[in-house]
Design goal:
By secondary structure, the chain is an alpha+beta fold. The chain contains twelve helices and 47 strands. Helix content is 18%, strand content 37%. Helix 6 packs across helix 7, helix 6 crosses helix 8 and helix 7 packs across helix 8.
């Protein structure tokens, strides 16, 4: 394997270690946290197969407000600025408006209510951070849902109400609400502090609107005394959600109202709660509902070790060797505990911005055993847990910090990772071929048959075994990407190369035209860009061979840190790449001086018999080792590389390779992380 693993020690016992077995972690799933994280939704749907409760957490105790039955489905949202787009007695009209709105940034939901003795459907969008934002949304929705509005106009709604007083039960409050509804007004049954009910009207966006409501409803229901609703404590507005399907499917819709600090805690007596909008996945632990920046925030709160059951299973296959699973568990635990409330309301998020987290669906017995076997173990430098970052595949060599964030430090260094190559071990090889019509592409080896003889240049030839075999633009089957051409049995093609399939270890992207590259770069690099790119060259690399600098037409493309080249070039898997300018040659001259020669008007090609002039859109170039490549000036720039991810720290595929060769998880971790100790309480 060629690795030298430096062992500093085994596991250090630390009585002061903070990662206790029952320590919890907070995982944000939906929230608007500005530039840090933004994933919003108007309402979230939760359900549990066991009995469950909604209430408030006070210190170490949970105070239930509502007890829910097993299998019951509830929608949750937060009270704030929204747009009431329309109201209709026809669900088909409401559904059509909602369908039109779903394709926009103004996400809809439909509330079923009653007015004047008839069932009505109210289409809302939101929530919005301010009244002004909601007002702008009202103007947009008026255009989007114009076909369903008739003479109605969308209006801004908000969280200011008048209260009709307190009631001892929901049933008593519902009777008063029904009387107000029958008079033609919206009214809402509200649960306050878990032990009393009220009826609110208004849904006003500002005090002026609320004053108009007060003037209108003063004499609607004799005997009621209206006063401003108490917004200083949490409350739940109870509504009926009609869904967004072809027909109304009502479920209870609880809208959290009250001060900005208001929170709801959702707990189950069983093992998990399902989040329908997260692909109907089920999650261990509890959920917290609150409002951030005017939007619904949903946070999963659970034990760290239970969180890791899901994370490790989502990050790497459960079938991998136990020692690689243990290494992943320790790295993931260290990474998670290092974050420490990074996202204000949470420690981590449930996407790969932190770590992949898919709930109980990604758990398995092998993963759970690996987590349990390393319970509480973390990587520390000195007395501090490290941010043990990791990536899928380092492409044979991990990154130096200078190649990722411009930083240094002593925790990471570029080390060999030969196990990464096993990511392609079960894949097919692909033939890079040149067709008679001058087009080039890739044919997978199981669809190919080699022909006898060779071309006059000594290159092999092949044909295909099935009719209409696709010739792919890169060595990978891509759904939705058109084939370069199709071949039939007996049709010959010249074999230029035989390469692994494009995957986690080695990959190909492109070819991209100058216009496509410029579109990728726009907004991703500082400074001006050329109007067209003739030459694109890697001009500086780091210790592992990753790209540090790229020039376009001789002009340096400036990024904040090197790893940004991945997104700058349209989402490359890694920065360990080469660029082939398929419309030009790179010529190495005397003294190592490089120059570019465009294939646009022909180029001088040096050969044993002297020089000749070559022109045309397709040229086959061979070096002294009889390796061939095609130059097609119409195709642009081809990116070929190794690895998947930033490459810093643990390589998941590399860890598997080390485990396959008999290394244990301590060896693996101390190979990929430098100057660290594995610490357990």
């Amino acid at each position: 394997m060629g690795l030298t693993v430096m062992m500093t020690s085994g596991i250090v016992q630390s009585p002061s270690f903070a990662a206790e077995a029952d320590q919890t972690i907070r995982v944000a799933m939906y929230a608007d946290l500005g530039s840090t994280y933004k994933s919003t939704i108007p309402a979230v749907t939760l359900k549990s197969g066991d009995s469950w409760t909604i209430g408030q957490d006070t210190g170490d105790s949970h105070r239930p407000w509502l007890f829910l039955s097993p299998g019951q489905t509830i929608k949750f949202s937060v009270d704030g600025y929204r747009v009431k787009v329309l109201e209709t007695t026809n669900f088909a009209t409401a559904s059509a408006a909602a369908k039109a709105l779903q394709a926009t940034s103004d996400k809809p939901f439909i509330i079923q209510g009653s007015k004047n003795g008839r069932v009505v459907y109210q289409v809302y969008t939101g929530m919005y951070a301010s009244e002004q934002a909601a007002s702008s949304a009202a103007a947009r929705t008026a255009t989007t849902a114009a076909a369903q509005l008739g003479e109605q106009m969308p209006v801004v709604a908000g969280n200011k109400y008048l209260s009709a007083g307190s009631f001892v039960s929901e049933q008593e409050a519902n009777l008063t609400r029904a009387t107000i509804n029958a008079a033609g007004y919206d009214a809402f049954t509200v649960l306050q502090s878990g032990d009393r009910y009220s009826v609110w009207i208004g849904e006003a966006a500002n005090e002026s609107q609320l004053s108009r409501v007060r003037a209108e409803v003063r004499d609607v229901v004799p005997g009621l005394t209206w006063s401003p609703a108490n917004m200083s404590e949490p409350a739940i507005l109870i509504r009926q959600d009609a869904g967004l399907g072809a027909s109304a499917q009502t479920v209870r819709h609880y809208m959290l109202s009250g001060p900005e600090s208001a929170k709801l805690a959702v707990q189950t007596s069983g093992e998990s709660i399902q989040v329908v909008e997260r692909s109907a996945r089920s999650y261990r632990g509890d959920f917290e509902i609150s409002k951030q920046s005017g939007q619904l925030a949903l946070v999963n709160v659970l034990a760290v070790e239970q969180y890791l059951y899901s994370v490790v299973g989502a990050e790497v296959p459960a079938s991998w060797p136990a020692e690689s699973l243990k290494a992943q568990a320790v790295a993931a635990r260290s990474y998670a505990l290092f974050q420490n409330n990074k996202f204000k309301i949470a420690d981590v998020v449930d996407t790969t911005l932190s770590q992949a987290y898919n709930g109980v669906a990604s758990e398995s017995s092998s993963v759970n055993r690996a987590v349990d076997a390393t319970t509480g173990e973390v990587l520390k430098s000195g007395d501090k847990i490290i941010e043990a970052v990791f990536s899928s595949n380092a492409g044979g060599m991990t990154a130096d910090p200078s190649e990722v964030w411009n930083g240094g430090g002593t925790l990471f260094a570029s080390v060999e990772s030969p196990g990464d190559a096993s990511a392609n071990s079960d894949g097919f090889m692909w033939y890079h071929v040149l067709l008679d019509n001058g087009k080039t592409g890739y044919v997978r080896e199981d669809n190919a048959r080699m022909l006898e003889g060779a071309t006059t240049a000594g290159l092999s030839q092949m044909t295909v075994t099935a009719d209409k075999t696709n010739v792919r633009p890169i060595p990978q089957i891509q759904s939705g990407v058109a084939a370069v051409a199709q071949m039939v049995p007996g049709e010959a093609a010249v074999v230029l190369d035989k390469v692994p399939g494009s995957g986690a270890y080695s990959w190909v992207r492109g070819p991209y035209t100058s216009a496509e590259v410029l579109k990728f770069l726009n907004g991703k690099v500082s400074g001006s860009l050329p109007s067209a790119i003739q030459f694109l060259d890697v001009t500086k690399r780091g210790p592992s061979g990753r790209v540090l600098e790229v020039q376009a037409n001789g002009q340096t493309l400036s990024v904040k840190y090197p790893d940004q080249f991945r997104s700058a070039f349209g989402g490359l898997p890694s920065t360990k790449f080469d660029i082939s300018g398929t419309g030009s040659y790179t010529v190495l001259g005397a003294g190592g001086v490089k120059g570019n020669i465009s294939g646009a008007d022909g180029a001088s090609i040096m050969s044993a018999s002297g020089s000749s002039r070559a022109a045309g859109s397709n040229l086959v170039i061979m070096n002294g080792e009889r390796q061939a490549r095609v130059v097609d000036r119409n195709e642009g720039f081809l990116f070929t590389g190794q690895g998947n991810g930033h490459g810093l720290g643990l390589s998941q595929w590399g860890a598997k390779g080390m485990a396959d060769e008999g290394y244990d998880y301590r060896d693996i971790l101390q190979h990929y992380y430098q100057n660290v100790s594995i610490v357990k309480e």
